[in-house]
Every structure is written in C-alpha cells, then in structure tokens.
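Structure in, sequence out. Go:
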C-alpha cells in the first residue's frame, strides 16, 4: 500500500542480507543454525500488530476479529523482511498471514507498474481464492492483482500484465510460461510466496518453481507455507531461503482438533449403498466426498445426483476450468449440498460451511488424508470426517493414524456391520501318488527330418 512505502524501505530488508551460501553443506548448516522452532504468541487483537489504519479497517470489513496463530507469528517476521517457513494446518488463516504484510508494503501502481510480489499455489481454484482474499484485504486502497493460471484466457492475462500489476497469484506452470514468453517481468519482485509447497512439489512442479525462484532477485524475501514439511520441502528451503525463521503452528498434531474422525470397514461392492445411508443419517450442511479416480468420481456423482436433484456436483482434473469454477461457486453459494471430487480440491479450498468429509476411497498418501480432512473444521468450526476402509487397506489406516497421532473411531450402521475376514481353513495333507517323471521339453528327442 502506498502509505507504507517509507516504513518498508527503512526496515533492514533485502540489501542488508548476508551473501548467499553457494555450497550445499553451507546452506544446510545455515538452515540448522536457525535454532529452536518458534511457536505462535498469544494475541487477542490485531491491534497488537504493527498495522496501518487502512489495514485495520479492511480487517474489520472482512470480519477478522483476532489473529490466528499463524497470523500472529508470521506477520511480524514478514513485515521485518525475514524469510519464513510456516507450518500450519489448512483452515488456519495462512492466506491472510502472508497477504497482510505484502499489502502493507506495496508501492503504488504509479510508482511501480511491474509485479512486486509473486504468490505461487498448486491449483487454479486456490489461485482464484488467494487472489480474492487478497483483494478483500486490500479494501480501501486500489490494488491490482493478476491471476495467472491454466484454463484462463491468455490474452486477458497479457493485457493485465501490460497495464501493470502489483501482485501476481498463479500456478507454477502458467507463471513459468509467462516467464518464457517474456511477458512477466520479475526485476521489481521483492517477495515470493510458496503456498501449499508440499503439494506443489508432490505433483511434480519442482523444476518450474526453481526456475521461477532463479528469475527473481536473489535478495528477495521468501515465505514458504506448508501443512507438512517433508524432506523435499526442506531441501527447497535450503537452496532458496536465507536464514529463515521456522514457525510451527501444528503442535505435533496433523489433524484439526475440532474434527471428529471415524471409519467404516466395508466391502468394495457395498460402498455406494453405505454412502447413501450415511448421508441420509448425517444430513450434512455441506459435504465433500473424495474419490481416488476421475472415472470413479463421475460414476458416484451420477448415482448421488438421482437422490440430490440439482444439489450434487462433481469436480476433477478432466473438467473444463469454466465448469470447475461454476461448481465451486455453487458450493460457496450453498446451492450444492454434496460435492464429489478428486484431490484437486483437497488442498487450500476454504469454504467454512463444509460440515462433513467422506473418504469414499482411502487416499494413497497420508498427507492427502490430512488435507482432505482439513476441508472441514475451518477456522475453529466443528466438523466430522468418515473414511471407508475395504479389506486389505488396514495398513493404510494404521499409517494414517500414526501420521496424525490419533486413532480413528470405528463407526457402524445397521446392515453394514464390520467386515470380518474369515480365517483360512487348515490344509489337510492328502497322500499324493508318486509324480510321474517327465522329460524336460527342451531335452526331448525329436524325430529327425528327412
């Protein structure tokens, strides 16, 4: 924001940083020298943060009352120009945590027409959501934000960039595409945000992310937000961040405390019957049913649409972006009661009215379970999650319980009692007749040809 140009330039930011470490061993030592992981301070009001009057008013307009833990911990460091690694569960206000300090330090469009901050997210839907949240927090001061993601009109994006933008929110593939075309200038970028970093790396975006980071000024600020911090995320931080502060808002729990988590054991061919009965019993305000495959999503959607006339939708990666946007908007507007989806909506989609999550198919990765379940219980609300476990998936269930450090509670419905795997009958030894000796087919004598 234009009023904060002075304070941002007066803070010990980019120019005061030590030179980058070039050798791998040095960067690892630099990351380890950060010291103890910080935990969030207790804050009762945004008045405890060094925010401008315009931002305080925007927060009131947006309905924010007190900082969430990740907001209380990250905003002061981000305002000071420090690199930050923030680990926080989904639904804890991460978007506002990095958007507020960026908006506070933006130069006006008259002073700088090139992007000053780039926010990278894994999905198109999350890009729209982050841009919308940032625009809402910019209330009171015009702010140009461009969304660069696949499935959107390229000519419109080109016009936006040509006319001047302050913040770019995009997916790795499309942002990298603009860099290759030369239509996205990065020499004025002073902040890069990697949101849902674990998901972006998990789906193979590391090459694009690294090229984007190398194109940005080396003395930039980098904010990395992730619900989990696997080794691949830590390696990225070691390579592209300088003396980062590590903030842990998870407190050793990977699942939101307000979410009740249960499971059913069920035969594969009875899962459709069970989902119908379960939705009838629970009568959710809104529910997301997760399937593993696109075909499975379409098949279950067609089945549930017969019961929930006009109140059931589906989303997966093969759908046109316009259709995906329409379905999500109907979900936000509460026109849909049931959404059947793949993991394309398992990350970052923030809809506070989701009361139920059903894992129709057990996720193949424990972190995907964490993110699926995180679609409910948003911002402290209560929620419930059910997981359907078929015979042979017991080890996956155990892995999930170890990951979240919590045991799931077995649930039952009349007529859907737990599946019991029958014990194999002991083998009875039968005396066999002596096997007839046979020649190896390769060694049998053949009739000679005449």
């Amino acid at each position: 924001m234009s009023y904060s140009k002075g304070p941002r330039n007066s803070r010990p930011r980019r120019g005061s940083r030590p030179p980058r470490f070039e050798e791998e061993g040095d960067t690892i030592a630099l990351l380890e020298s950060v010291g103890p992981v910080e935990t969030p301070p207790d804050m009762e009001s945004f008045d405890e943060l060094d925010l401008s009057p315009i931002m305080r008013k925007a927060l009131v307009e947006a309905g924010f009352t007190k900082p969430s833990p990740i907001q209380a911990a990250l905003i002061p460091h981000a305002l000071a120009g420090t690199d930050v690694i923030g680990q926080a569960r989904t639904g804890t206000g991460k978007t506002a945590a990095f958007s507020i300090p960026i908006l506070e330090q933006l130069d006006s469009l008259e002073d700088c027409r090139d992007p000053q901050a780039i926010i990278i997210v894994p999905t198109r839907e999350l890009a729209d959501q982050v841009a919308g949240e940032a625009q809402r927090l910019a209330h009171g001061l015009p702010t140009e934000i461009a969304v660069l993601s696949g499935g959107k009109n390229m000519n419109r994006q080109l016009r936006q960039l040509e006319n001047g933008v302050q913040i770019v929110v995009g997916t790795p593939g499309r942002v990298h595409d603009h860099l290759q075309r030369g239509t996205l200038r990065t020499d004025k970028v002073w902040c890069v945000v990697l949101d849902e970093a674990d998901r972006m790396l998990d789906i193979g975006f590391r090459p694009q992310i690294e090229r984007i980071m190398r194109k940005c000024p080396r003395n930039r600020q980098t904010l990395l937000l992730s619900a989990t911090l696997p080794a691949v995320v830590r390696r990225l931080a070691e390579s592209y961040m300088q003396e980062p502060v590590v903030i842990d808002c998870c407190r050793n729990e990977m699942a939101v405390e307000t979410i009740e988590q249960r499971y059913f054991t069920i035969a594969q061919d009875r899962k459709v019957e069970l989902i119908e009965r379960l939705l009838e019993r629970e009568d959710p305000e809104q529910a997301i049913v997760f399937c593993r495959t696109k075909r499975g999503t379409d098949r279950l959607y067609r089945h549930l649409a017969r019961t929930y006339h006009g109140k059931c939708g589906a989303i997966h990666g093969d759908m046109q972006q316009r259709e995906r946007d329409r379905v999500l908007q109907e979900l936000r507007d509460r026109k849909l009661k049931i959404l059947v989806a793949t993991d394309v909506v398992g990350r970052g989609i923030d809809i506070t009215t989701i009361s139920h999550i059903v894992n129709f198919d057990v996720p193949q990765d424990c972190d995907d379970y964490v993110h699926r379940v995180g679609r409910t219980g948003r911002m402290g609300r209560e929620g419930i999650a059910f997981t359907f476990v078929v015979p042979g998936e017991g080890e996956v269930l155990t892995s999930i319980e170890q990951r979240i450090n919590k045991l799931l509670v077995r649930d039952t419905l009349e007529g859907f009692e737990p599946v019991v795997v029958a014990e194999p009958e002991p083998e009875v030894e039968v005396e066999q007749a002596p096997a007839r000796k046979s020649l190896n087919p390769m060694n049998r004598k053949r009739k000679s040809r005449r």
